[in-house]
Amino acid sequence: MTLILESSIVAANEAYAAKFTPEDVNLQLPPVKEVAVVTCMDTNIMPASALGFKLGDAHLIRNGGGSAREALRSLVVSQQLFGTKAILIIKHTDCAMTKFDNPTIHSLIKKNLGVNADDQDFGSIEDIEQAVRDEVEFLKTHELIPEVVRGNTTGWIYDAMTGKLTKVV
Ligand SMILES: [Zn+2]
Fold it and tell me: Could you give the domains of the chain?
């Protein structure tokens, strides 16, 4: 990390911590809203703001594309240890994961790192809506997802240009 970036992050955190009060902290570990959200790491999404979450409200799990498969480990922990009873899968418009395919990233890895990673799936997405449906189906049929959670698993698309969330399934 560059020194300039690091110092700007440290300065921002100092300002944040200066206004921080213990009342902001939910010391009860289970999320107040009993929900886990899986969404993309995209910089244009601020899930807590978009969904109205405060500290302590929900588990937010992020990765490239908002992959439920990649998030499975965290979802199981969220449900088994912290009692969450619902899952929201949120993908979004103009996701960068729709702009490449596996061969593209495989060749970048070869060029940049000299490593053959051709057997790895980096999770590119062809159709966002279909991907939402597939991942909800993946969770609703997975043996590690409890029945009560399967019934409360929904899929959404977030419009990065309007901030609006639309339910798919
Ligand atoms: Zn994305």
Answer: 30-92+126-167 (3.40.1050.10)
Using an 8 Å Cβ cutoff, are 39 and 158 in contact? yes
Residues by chain with Cβ below 5 Å of ion ligand 1: 40, 42, 95
CA distance 114 to 109: 7
Determine the average pLDDT of the residues in 70-86: 98
State which amino acid sits at residue 133.
R
Q: Ligand 1 centroid vs 30 CA: distance in angstroms?
A: 27
pLDDT, tens only, 2-55: 889 999 999 999 999 999 988 778 777 799 999 999 999 999 999 999 999 998
CA of 64 to the centre of ligand 1 (A): 6
Q: Is 119 known to sit in a ligand binding site? A: no
